[in-house]
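User: Hey, my collaborator sent me this sequence without any context and asked if I could get a structure. I don't really work with proteins. Can you help?
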Amino acid sequence: MLRTAGTSSVSEAGRWLGLNALHAPDMPLDAALELWEAALDAALSGEAYEGFGWFSMVERLDPDRWLDLTLRTAQAAGGQVDQAARVAERALEDADDERAVKIVTALLGADLKLWYLEEVGNVGLKMLGHQDVKTVGARAELRERVLEREFFGARGRSDGK
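Assistant: No problem. I've predicted the 3D structure and written it out in structure-token form, which is a compact way to encode the shape of the chain:
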């Protein structure tokens, strides 16, 4: 069913569900999250997932579930998601979680607008300052991506190895 809807329709549904969940705190999230998971399970093209970035502003969404869905989304979309800077900021709230580091790494792989790139890159630099052993490998990948994007402040930062 989602395949026949088309990528732009799925992305638009994600965008509107995220916005409605943000502005309607009594809106149940279960059906919206089921659609998000179904879209990811359908393995659509990356553009289908862009709109789901709006869920980064829905604070009542369980952080663990948000990290799982957003990591899958960022990877499926090649990092190209709406509200990329806000997605990165929310990931920073869980900087000692490998999924959060991988989300920011994926975002930095996208063709972001310059103002979003700066914000996401700065979040990446902040994450590199964390020293949790569980995220050493993910931070090494993040460091490489940050350097590729020419955030040279990462040069002096350790990846924890």
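In plain terms: The chain has a mean pLDDT of 89. You can pass these tokens on to your collaborator as they are.
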